[in-house]
Structures are given as structure tokens and as C-alpha cells.
Amino acid sequence: MNHLIASNIKVDLIYLDPPFNSNRNYSLIFKRKGVTSQQKAFADMWELNKRNRQMVLDFESIIKNSDEISPSLKLFLEAWIDPILNSGTSKERKMLVYLVYMTERLVLMKQVLKDTGSIYFHCDPTASHYIKIIMDGIFGIENFRNEIIWGYRTGGNSKKWYAKKHDVILFYSKSKNWTFHSTKDEIVRQHRKYGHKSFKEYKDNLGYYRYCTRRDIWDDINAIVGQTDGHNQKNVKRIGYNTQKPIELLHRIVKNGSNPNDIILDPFCGCGTTIHAAVQNNNRWIGVDISSNTTQVIKDRLKDIMVTQREDYIYIDGSPETKEDYDKMNAYQKQDWLINEVGGMPNQRKSGDEGVDGEMTMHLGVKAGKDLWGKMVFSVKTGDQCKPEFVRELVGTMKLKKAVMGGLIVDKDPTVNMEIIADKKGELEYSYAKGLPSLYFPKVQILTSQQIIDKVKFNTPPTQIQVQLHKKGQLKLKDQSL
Fold first, then answer.
1. Which of 268, 370, 454, 480 could form a disulfide with 18 if both were Cys (CB 3.0 to 4.6 A apart)?
2. 80 and 166: one domain?
3. What is the mean pLDDT of the chain?
4. Do 237 and 34 touch, CB atoms closer than 8 A?
């Protein structure tokens, strides 16, 4: 968003569905070029670790100098920060980190939004009341338009409280003039599609009576469950995120809140449902996400829905191209980027990670007709120090996590002693199939950040994705020969 502001790019509609303050880890069962693999997409854990504490402390100076935050909101945030940092409960601290994180980004979203634009913030009841206070202080109480309740019916009930089956979408405009279209045409279309005769009332597939007026309660769009979506439509394409939202929900927001060719921004675009809806409604779009997997997931999704195979979009990678660019990143940004660049998945827990900064799944051969898999763990040590203890720590982590390989990434060139310790761990023997000669890979390897900037990779057996791509290609060749 800072890039958009610097480039003087303004958008007409913002929809965001950021990680909720739900204290859960979310996995991504992602499909890359038709290959399925499971990785941890993001950790929705707003713990007050060292990194987040510094973010909160830095934010104190930001709110004092910001013209985008109202005086009352500044007082609200200041009243929270010091007491909770010093003596708050665990839940209060997590909420504080979440609110500071979101406030900083909402300030930027207001700057990116056109004066005639609007924003839809998708959250849940654990934090929606706090987020509303923050949006009142940034966008103005007078610009609050709706609290939309998206109710859905999924499995599971509690014996101690009512079933928690709704999300909250907060709708704000930036000024008194904003785009909004009636949903009547969409309602009529849905009635005809599902055979409903009455415009005012209909009975859904589960026997519930629903009223199709332009209400702020949306209970006619169900959550994605298995392979169904919306009105229990079958054959919904699961992208892999277990937080994936139904396309009908985004169609409604995009259609109601924008005109054709308007620019839609999703700053937490994930698996690309907002982008999907924007393309199908003839909008321009900008998607932003912290996960490098997102890019390929959305590219594959766009190819499935576009009439032509042209790739009329631009991918702006935040990767550093030089050592000078790399040095501008903080330690955590460096860590995540380095592991992503060598093909691993960064560990989202930055404290209490047991020495594992990232990991990667590799193929170890075939036994009794079944593929064998092993794990490579990564340790990143940025900064001026480079010592043998780093290698010994990695070896201990490999043993603890039962990893067959380990990769150490450092900023400085490794010492001779570091290389000797790594060599002593020997080599991993790998044979893809019976009758083929074995390959050998050092069990412990060291790369520098400069090597990774220069696109050097660790020397490993094929990764899980590479093996599955190979098998898929072999099946395709077999089909063609038949």
C-alpha cells in the first residue's frame, strides 16, 4: 500500500478478509499447476513476542503524528497500550497486537481509497466491536454505512452456548458520495435460478424461509463446506485455504460497491476470491498478500476463469535484487524471504519455534510401491556473527525434529570450522527407483544470503511438488501415447 500511495494510485473499492483474532493456525492445501501439497499458510497467533512488542512500541509514535487518526481514537489506543503491555492478560495482549496491526494498515487503506470509494472489512464477533471503534476513528462515524451479518449453516453445535455461525462485514464509505447499486436484479436472478416464485419470500434447500430484500443480514449465501458453495451448489473448486470465502459473497460486494472498470483492492487476497469476482464483473484489481504461494495459486485460478489465456496482469515481487535492498529489511523479513527463496515454508512462530525457522518436504525414494518423504529444516542467522555454534544448534534441531537434512543460512561467509562440522554429518543416499544409480547429498549445508540473492539453492533430492509434477507429466505423456 505504501507503493500505491507513492505511485499516486487510488482505488474505488476495498475488501479485506485478514486473519481473525481466533488463536488458530491455518494450513494451505495449495494446488500449484494441478499439484496438491499442504503447507502452513499463516499462523493466526497474535502473541506479544519480541517482534510484536516492538511493533506496538513503534506504533505509539505513529499515532501521535498521524493526521488520519481522530483525537478520540488516539486516546483510546494510548489508554490500551501501556497498561496492557505492562500488566494485561494474555488475551488482552493478543487483542492489542491485532488492533495495532490492523490500525496501521487501515490508515494506509484510507489514503489509497478514492473520495468516492468504500471499504468492506470482513471479521468475526471476537473483534468486530473493537474494529468498528477504530474504523470510526479513521473513516469517521458519519461514514459508517452498515454492519452486515453474514450468517451460514455449517456443522457443529455447542451444549453450552448458541452455535457461532456468522461473520461480520463492516461497510464504510470515505465521504458522503459513494457507489452503491441495488441488489434487486441479483435477487430476481437468484429466484429464477432456484425456481422461487415469490419475490418477497422463498423456501431454501433446508426448508428455511428467507426474505430477499436489501437487508444487512445475508443468510442466503452459505459457507463453503466440502465441495458446495452458496445455495449448496456442487462442484465448487476448492483452492485450498480453509478460510476460503464463497464467490457469491464477493460477487455481491463487488457488484453493489463498484462500477465496471473500477479498481478493486484486496490487501489480504489469499487464494484470490476477490480477484476472481473482480475479473468476472469486468473490474480492474490489485491483490496483495504476504505469502509467496499466493501468486501461483491466483495465476492458476485466473487461467481457469479467463476467456483467453493472456496474462494481462503485472506481478510486483517484493524480493530484494541487491545486497543493499536486502539490508533494508528487518531480521524477520529477511528470515521469511530467504526460506521462501530456497523453496521452504517459513515458520510463522518467531518465538518458541524450537530452532526451526522453516522446513521443506523432500522425496526419499520408493518402498513397496509407496513414496517415502523426509523433512529438511532451516536455521537463519542474520547479522555480523558467524560461528560453529550455529551448525551445532542446527544438528541438534535436526535430531529433535527427526529431519534428514538441515540448511543453515548466514549473512557472512562461513568459517572453516563451520564447514568441517557440517561435512562430518555425512551424506544422504537417494535413489528414485530400483535399478537407478544413487545420488548423494550433504546432510548439512550452508548458504549465504548473497548466494540466495544470486539464486543459488540448496542441493537436495526432489521436493514433494517436483515429484508430483513429474508424475503428472508422465501420466499426460501416457495418455497422449494412447
1. 268
2. yes
3. 82
4. no
- Which domain, by its residues, includes 199? 2-305
How many domains does the structure of the chain reveal?
2
Q: What is the dihedral of CA 248, 117, 65, 59, to 10 degrees?
A: 10
292, 349: one domain: no
Q: Model pTM greater than 0.90?
A: no
Residues in CB range of 237: below 8 A, 6 or more apart: 301, 304
- Nearest one of 453, 457, 456 to 327, comparing CA atoms: 453
β-pair partners for 362? 374, 463
Per-residue model confidence as pLDDT tens digits over 157-209: 888 989 889 999 999 999 999 999 865 545 445 545 444 444 444 454 444 44
CA distance 278 to 283: 5
Q: Which of 292, 312, 294 has its CA nearest to residue 303?
A: 312
**Separate counts of helices (H) and strands (E) for the chain:** 15, 18
* pLDDT value at 234 more than 50: no
**Distance, CA of 374 to CA of 406 (rounded, Å):** 11
Chain segment 400-449, per-residue pLDDT in tens: 999 999 999 999 999 999 999 999 999 999 987 777 889 999 999 999 99
